[in-house]
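Aim 2 progress update. The chain analyzed this quarter is reproduced below.
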Amino acid sequence: MGFHEGELLVQQRAQVADRADQLAGMLRAPRLDGGMAAFAAERDHAVITARDPDGRLWTSPVFGEPGFLRAYGATLEVHAVPLPGDPLHVLTEGGPVGSIMVDYARRRRLRVNGTLARVGPAGFTIEADQAYGNCPQHIPRREATAIGEVRPVVTRHEGLTPEVGERLRAADSFLLGTVHPERGADASHRGGPAGFVQVDGGVVGWPELPGNNLFNSLGNLAVDPEAAMLVLDLRHGRSLQLSGTAQIEWAGTDRRVRFVPEVVVETRGLLGQ
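Predicted structure tokens:
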């Protein structure tokens, strides 16, 4: 399909259009076989970006035993759904969805974006438009965390609280959800030293560090400001989900994102704690 207008705009402003053109082959029709299928099958959780029944964009974790993700051809079967109380516990068939699987121990990731082709009470299927791995850059190395029985306790409120702000400042990793009106949803990873996420009042910001030059996320934001964040802290069995709007701020070719969360969901008990 090639790059969309937002991706092209950001690539040109960042002065990396020539380098991005060399990677355009990553956007060819996906084949979720071989190494991609094996990588997916090993995971015990994935992250998706989609809209809730009210149309709000969220980024959510999905947990299961290894093997709950089955990839083949242009299809990713997910034999689980987001947890009760999660904004995406009820998914809408036919809607856009972005997904990402991250192996923090080996610093590898796989993104699969497409359409929610089938949705049921015990899982859903993604028919993929895009599927590709990304480099290990900015993924913090962590030991694998065993995920056992999950007993989620969910709290939902508007805007940031001081505690949420502190947790964001301490994060060295989060997942970013964005969407394009025609190309659909995307889930991507952001990482850096603790403190790379800044909080000023009700505004969250972070620098966009050099990456693969595709600019899927920033390209989406250049067209549609809807955005979602997920801070997944499996060491303490908790997560933060934020939904709101974002914009790109430029200083020459350098860029940062200014994100204004409107609704925040805090979940504890992800490891049965």
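Residues 114 and 129 are 5 Å apart (CA to CA). Helices lie at 5-13, 17-21, 35-42, 162-170, 216-223. These observations will guide the mutagenesis experiments scheduled for the next reporting period.
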